[in-house]
Q: What sequence folds into this?
């Protein structure tokens, strides 16, 4: 029984570190996707409005 208690004590911090690592990766991936979406939306907007920025001659 003593060995089981010791391994549980050692596994809990590893489980916590793995959970925070997984959450950190998920947040980082979400931010990358958000910036990619915003960039594509900006490029589409700029492409639609590029003819307005040119001055008529």
A:
């Amino acid at each position: 029984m003593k060995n089981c208690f010791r391994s549980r004590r050692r596994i809990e911090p590893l489980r916590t570190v793995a959970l925070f690592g997984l959450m950190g990766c998920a947040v980082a991936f979400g931010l990358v996707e958000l910036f990619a979406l915003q960039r594509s939306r900006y490029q589409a907007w700029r492409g639609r409005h590029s003819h307005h920025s040119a001055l008529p001659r």
